[in-house]
Design a protein that fits this description.
- The protein is of the alpha/beta class and about 400 residues long.
- The protein has three domains: about 70 residues, Roll (Archaeosine Trna-guanine Transglycosylase, Chain: A, domain 4), CATH 2.30.130; about 110 residues, Transcription Regulator spoIIAA (2-Layer Sandwich), CATH 3.30.750; about 190 residues, Vaccinia Virus protein VP39 (Rossmann fold, 3-Layer(aba) Sandwich).
- The chain is built from eleven helices and 20 strands.
- The strands form four sheets. It has a seven-stranded mixed beta sheet with strand order 16-15-14-17-18-20-19, with helices on both faces. Strands 2-6-5-4-1-3 form a six-stranded mixed beta sheet.
- Helix 2 packs across helix 4, helix 7 runs parallel beside helix 8 and helix 10 packs across helix 11.
- The longest helix has 18 residues.
- The termini are far apart.
- The mean pLDDT is about 95.
């Protein structure tokens, strides 16, 4: 190895010894450059050592409070064999989870950032296409190596690899990275299966990588509470929860999203599964506005909003938003109704979220019981050394009276 070296201050290496993958800028004592390096660049590979210069691993350097994201805790070279082993380990887990090579589910997450030891990298599989999303310049610089590793490990299971990193990197001030195929060229959108149900995925124009794969198990659970029920699915995007509710035998389903494109996609997904059905209605309208204006009441309501807080400074405002949204849902749900409520804001932890929902129930004067605590599925693993990786939090609530 011949990487620039990050030397940590005394007593600032314990978190890395416990395999937490972040090095904060305040922990750095000095930077030792190689003879070839005049300066350390965003995305460069660096070796991290303790104050006695004992190796702790290798990561990607970045400007900002998180200065290094570790991709290995070994003193090893980052070459093609490294990437192949990382992809192989992740793929083996998805085979164990009965997701890879499944006949009923053809979309899943292959790489989940810190959860798979690659902080800053997301790879989602849609049938024969891998969608790669780099959240750091370090991974953007390695996309060709990652593509080669995916092709090698998954061989005939993959016909194309598409990079969708432009937006995520542009938000961080990185420019010059464009979306496009790194291998192959498959037509988008395509239809994939999730638990035997069909969904149209547009990885080029859709949100995130094209679908919210992380709600797969929670959508399946909804079927338990949908048969013979009137269901409201808010922030519906592609209508995932709506399709599952209809599959379970809901008598009526309403889908709401502020985006007309999302509503069109939800309607399409309903149609490709069930044809034209009269008991599904969709509304291109802001969710809170819809809740305030509708005179309908519902047996089951799903609240799955986008992240209300993406930084600690926005936390208080986010809490008020969650409280207002849930209080309104509590006020209009029928006695004996079921509420599925979620937060995907990483800076809102589970305890804070649950306290907020309790405050909403108090404000609405409803007696509420917790039936299920929900999270992300196993193809979105959380490293035990990085609990911050549990971003999706949810509750299934029984509104008794």
């Amino acid at each position: 190895m011949n990487y620039p070296t990050i030397v940590l201050k005394p007593k600032r290496s314990e978190s890395l010894r416990r395999r937490h993958p972040w090095v904060f800028s305040g922990a750095i004592d000095k930077i030792l450059l190689t003879e070839e390096e005049e300066d350390l660049q965003e995305g460069d590979l660096v070796e991290v050592v303790d104050s006695n210069e004992k190796p702790l691993g290798v990561g990607h350097f970045a400007e900002g409070s998180i200065a290094v994201r570790m991709i290995t805790f070994k003193n090893e070279k980052i070459d093609e064999s490294f990437w192949e082993q990382k992809i192989q380990n992740a793929y083996n887990l998805r085979i164990e989870l009965q997701l890879a090579k499944s006949d009923i589910t053809t979309c899943y997450r292959l790489i989940h950032a810190e959860g798979d030891g690659l902080p800053g990298l997301i790879v989602d599989i849609y049938d024969k296409v891998a969608i790669v999303q780099a959240h750091s310049l370090g991974f953007a610089n390695s996309l060709q190596h990652i593509t080669t590793a995916i092709k090698t490990v998954m061989s005939d299971c993959i016909r194309a690899v598409y990079s969708k990193s432009q937006k995520t990197l542009h938000q961080q001030g990185e420019i010059g990275v464009e979306d496009g195929y790194l291998y192959g060229n498959e037509k988008s959108p395509q239809i994939v299966l999730e638990n035997g149900l069909k969904f149209e995925i547009d990885w080029i124009n859709g949100q995130k990588t094209g679908f919210f794969i992380d709600q797969r198990l929670n959508r399946e659970l909804l079927k338990t509470y949908s048969r013979g029920k009137k269901v409201l699915n808010t922030f519906c995007y592609s209508g995932g929860f709506s399709v599952y509710a209809l599959a379970a035998g809901a008598t009526e389903v309403h889908s709401v999203d502020s985006s007309a494109k999302a509503i069109a996609l939800a309607d399409r997904n309903v149609e490709i599964n069930f044809g034209k059905v009269k008991h599904h209605q969709s509304f291109a309208k802001d969710t809170l506005k819809f809740l305030n204006e509708t005179t309908d009441t519902y047996d089951t309501i799903i609240l799955d909003p986008p992240a209300y807080a993406k930084s600690k400074s926005a936390q208080h405002k986010a809490i008020q938003g969650y409280k207002r949204l849930n209080a309104k849902a509590f006020s209009m749900i029928k006695k004996g109704g079921i509420l599925f409520t979620f937060s995907c804001s990483q800076v809102v932890d589970r305890k804070l979220f649950e306290n907020t929902i309790m405050a909403a129930a108090i404000e609405a004067k409803r007696n509420v019981k917790v039936l299920h605590h929900l999270s992300q599925p196993a193809d979105h693993p959380v490293s035990i050394f990085h609990p911050e990786g549990e971003y999706l939090k949810g509750l299934v609530l029984y509104v008794e009276e």
